[in-house]
Every structure is written in structure tokens, then in C-alpha cells.
Design brief:
There is one protein chain. With 474 residues, the protein is of the alpha/beta class. Helix content is 55%, strand content 8%. The chain has 3 domains: 3-86, Four Helix Bundle (Hemerythrin (Met), subunit A), CATH 1.20.120; 92-300, Rossmann fold, CATH 3.40.50.300; 305-442, Signal recognition particle, SRP54 subunit, M-domain (434 Repressor (Amino-terminal Domain)), CATH 1.10.260.30. Helix 15 packs antiparallel against helix 18 (373-384). The chain is flat. The two termini are 27 Å apart. Strand 5 (219-225), helix 10 (230-242) and strand 6 (247-251) form a beta-alpha-beta unit. It has an 8-stranded mixed sheet with strand order 3-2-4-1-5-6-7-8, with helices on both faces.
Length: 474
């Protein structure tokens, strides 16, 4: 979501850090460019003004100008100001508050189409799997066709219990019944998915207020679409004034929005962004950490989140088995299949790349290389169309077998050839690893096949993409 902003800020700070010394005029000129970049990213004007004033005041001080690395110090000041704008370093403030007598009521509010129902299911699944809470979901949307059925379906997918639907029941009555069921059923949390409207109106606010007064929610989360720009900030302000919100759930963060809404919301409303929706699946949700997001925006990456994602999704025993085989120079197509499946568990490849330090500066190169997430699925299909013998002895795969594999996987013979070439490159790396060890592996040009085939202009990604990640192009 912050790709455009990240690129612009990256170019500004690259110019600063390349200079050995800085004058006050240099810093002020850079800050003017930062101001333009933030405004173009759709950050609210009052937020931009306050941010630039604060950052400039700190950056033009004698201590910075006469520093040994003035450019780096300016970057750090901007980073710290970004963290403050996004909510500060108080991690507890961005966590969902469950510190109350169970069942803890959480009220989900927002406009229609913001992703409220899907986000309700994502939060429920997150609380159930990560926090080990027993969660009940209830739909209070009696207006949108099949809204209640949608939440019930999502509940089945996420393995979360939903309140049975009673035809003709009003929202306040549903909320009270959900809380009663929560107490009787021993639930820890009750998530109440309220109705939305296409625009803010008095009837919507009155209804949400009545539900709020009936259940006294510990958290009232506004679900806001990151792709609606300044409209999302206006929506947040209205709900804060008329209903009172305790946090924001930002959706469609994985889209191509300019990102300014996310940067503005915390500053405008005074409430923290608590979670971000980063995909369509019920597990595609992340906690919001101001420092990590600031790092992504400035191209510093988010290695902590990347490691957390790997820890949660990668099978440790399988990874150890694979590593042992690699060190012994053993690597067949079964191992490649295992790698592809581990990658798929970690989620969207573009999102993972964004967590690597320095990748923000290479956004255009990555875009030109055209990393194709569907290709991993196609490669898995090719591997699954092979016989067990073919996967353990790839040398037996000749022309007639390639035709059969392509037909069985719904791909083409060139697709099969590309996969086999990629495998051969990786198998060569494993043999080199066995002979020369890791030092020999990294000498003389890096790892063939471990990243984008042929590499990226300017030397490729640091360390390459994980083995097995394909791209469309050449």
C-alpha cells in the first residue's frame, strides 16, 4: 500500500545520505519534498503540516548538521516522527483490549462495503487461534441481503461459532441475545457485526448508539477501507464524534492505495489502528505496529514481522529435514514441492518482499520482473502431475513424459521445461554447497536459481528470493 510513498521518500533520503555534509538549506529542501510526497499520498493537510514542522525543527539543529552522518540522522528523525504519527511505540495501545469480565463485547462499526463482516471473521479467527479465546460472532445487519448468512458462512470457514439467525429480530435484541448466549455458553469474546450504510446518516448512528448502550462494548472498532483515501478519514471522524470508537481496523492494506488514510487516521481521531487486513482469506490479518510500518515506508523493511510469519507458518521439522538434505547435496523434485508449499503458507509474495530491507527502493525492478503468485500454484500442479519415480529421478523426464505432465497439470511443455531448468539450477547449488560449504556457495556471483531467474537489474535482491519463487518475463 505504501509503495509510491516509499519510493519517493527513498529517493529524497538517498540524495541526502550520499552527501558528506549538509547545510540547513539542504535539509529544508528535502523536507519540502517529503511534504509533497505525503500530500500526494493522500495524507491529510493538517497532519502533514504538523509532521513537517516537528521533523524540520529537529533536523535543522546544530547537532544534526554537524554530525558525522547528517543524512542518516535526518532519516532517523523522520522515522521517529512517522512512528509518533502512527501511534508511538506503545505496543499495548495497539492491542485489542480483552481486559474485562467475559464475555467481552466488541462492536464492529463502519460503512457498507468497507469489509466489516469479513474483518469480523478475521478478528474472531485470530483471537481463537492466537489468543486461544472462545469466540461468538453475531450479525446485527438485518438490511443487507444475506448479510447474516455471509457471517455464518465465514464462521464455518474460520471454525468460529455464530449466533443462530432469528427472522424479524431487531439489532438491539440480537445484541442482547448474543451477550446472553455468550454468558451461558462460556464464551470469552462476543463480536457484534453491525449494519452499514453507503453514507453516514442519522439512522445509522442512532442504531449503532442504541446497540452500544445496550451492550457497553469494551472495544468499538471502526472498519475502514484504506483504498478510499480521505473519505476514510472523514468517516473515522464522524464515528468518533457520534458513537465513540476505541480503535480502527484497516482493510485492503494489500491494495494499491496511496496509504495516506492510514497515516492520517491515528493523528485525526486520536485512536490507534489495531489491525490490518492484508488479503482475502480469514487468516489474512496482522496486528498494527507503528514502528514496523514506519520501517516499511522508509524502506527499512520489517524483518520482525517476516520472522513471525515464518515461525507461524513454516513446518519446523520439514524445514530441518530439507536443510539436512541440502547440506548433503541431495535435492529432488519432492523437496522442491515441499518448498513451494511452505512458501504458499506464508502468504502473498509481494507482501513478503515488502518486509525485506531495501526492497522498497527496488519496487520498479520487482514490478518489471513481474512476480506471479499464481505461478507457484501452477508449478505445484506440474509437480503433482508427475509420478513418484519422476519426482525422485527427474532425469527420466523426456519429451513424451513432459507432454503427459503438461496435459495433466493444465500447463504447457515450456512451463514444464522452465520448472525443470529451475530445479537443475537449484540442484547444482546444493551440490556446490556440499563440496565447498556456504563460503563457496556465496563466492563468485551469488546463488543461481535462488532468486528471480536471471536476477534483477542492478544486482538483484539481497540474498535473492527464497528458492522456487518464479517470475513471468524473459
Amino acid at each position: 500500500m505504501f509503495d509510491g510513498l516509499s519510493q519517493k521518500l527513498g529517493s529524497v533520503f538517498d540524495a541526502l545520505t550520499r552527501r558528506g555534509a549538509l547545510k540547513e538549506d539542504d535539509v529544508r529542501a528535502a523536507m519540502r519534498e517529503v511534504r509533497v510526497a505525503l500530500l500526494e499520498a493522500d495524507v491529510a493537510l493538517p497532519v502533514v503540516k504538523e509532521f513537517i514542522e516537528k521533523a524540520t525543527e529537529q533536523a535543522v539543529g546544530e547537532q544534526v548538521i554537524r554530525s558525522v552522518t547528517p543524512g542518516q540522522m535526518v532519516v532517523k528523525i523522520v522515522h521517529d516522527c512517522l512512528v509518533e504519527m502512527l501511534g508511538g511505540e506503545d505496543e499495548a495501545a495497539s492491542e485489542l483490549n480483552l481486559n474485562a469480565t467475559p464475555p467481552v463485547p466488541i462492536l464492529m462499526v463502519g460503512l457498507q462495503g468497507s469489509g466489516k463482516t469479513t474483518t469480523t471473521a478475521k478478528i474472531a479467527r485470530h483471537l481463537q487461534t492466537k489468543a486461544k479465546k472462545r469466540v461468538l460472532m453475531a450479525s446485527l445487519d438485518i438490511y443487507r441481503p444475506a448479510a447474516m448468512e455471509q457471517l455464518a458462512t465465514l464462521g464455518q470457514q474460520a471454525d468460529v461459532i455464530t449466533l443462530p439467525i432469528v427472522e424479524g429480530e431487531k439489532p438491539v435484541a440480537i445484541a442482547k441475545r448474543a451477550m446472553d448466549e455468550g454468558r451461558r455458553g462460556g464464551f470469552d469474546v462476543v463480536l457484534l457485526d453491525t449494519a452499514g450504510r453507503t453514507t453516514i446518516d442519522q439512522a445509522l448512528m442512532d442504531e449503532v448508539t442504541q446497540v452500544r448502550d445496550a451492550v457497553s462494548p469494551v472495544e468499538t472498532l471502526l472498519v475502514a477501507d484504506a483504498m478510499t483515501g480521505q473519505d476514510a478519514v472523514a468517516t473515522a471522524t464522524a464515528f468518533q464524534e457520534k458513537v465513540g470508537i476505541t480503535g480502527i481496523a484497516l482493510t485492503r492494506v494489500d491494495g494499491d492505495a496511496r496509504g495516506g488514510a492510514a497515516l492520517s487516521m491515528r493523528a485525526v481521531t486520536g485512536v490507534p489502528i489495531k489491525v490490518m487486513g492484508v488479503g482475502e482469506k480469514t487468516d489474512a490479518i496482522e496486528a498494527f505496529h507503528a514502528e514496523r510500518i514506519a520501517g516499511r515506508i522508509l524502506g527499512m523493511g520489517d524483518v520482525v514481522s517476516l520472522v513471525e510469519k515464518a515461525t507461524e507458518n513454516v513446518d519446523e521439522e520439514e524445514a530441518e529435514r530439507l536443510a539436512k538434505r541440502m547440506m548433503q547435496g541431495q535435492f529432488d523434485l519432492n523437496d522442491l514441492l515441499s518448498q513451494l508449499r511452505q512458501l504458499q503458507k506464508m502468504g502473498d509474495m509481494k507482501g513478503l518482499l515488502g518486509m525485506l530491507p531495501g526492497v522498497g527502493k527496488m519496487a520498479k525492478q520487482i514490478k518489471d520482473a513481474d512476480v506471479d503468485p499464481k505461478m507457484i500454484k501452477r508449478q505445484e500442479a506440474i509437480l503433482l502431475s508427475m509420478t513418484p519415480r519422476e519426482r525422485t529421478q527427474p532425469a527420466v523426464i523426456k519429451a513424451s513424459r513432459k507432454k503427459r505432465i503438461a496435459a495433466g497439470s493444465g500447463t504447457s511443455v515450456p512451463d514444464v521445461n522452465r520448472l525443470l531448468k529451475q530445479y537443475q539450477q537449484m540442484a547444482g547449488v546444493m551440490k556446490k554447497m556440499k563440496k565447498k560449504g556456504l563460503a563457496g556457495l556465496f563466492s563468485g556471483g551469488g546463488i543461481p536459481g535462488a532468486g528471480l531467474q536471471g536476477g534483477l537489474p542492478g544486482g538483484g535482491l539481497p540474498g535473492g528470493l527464497p528458492p522456487g519463487v518464479p517470475y513471468r518475463g524473459r
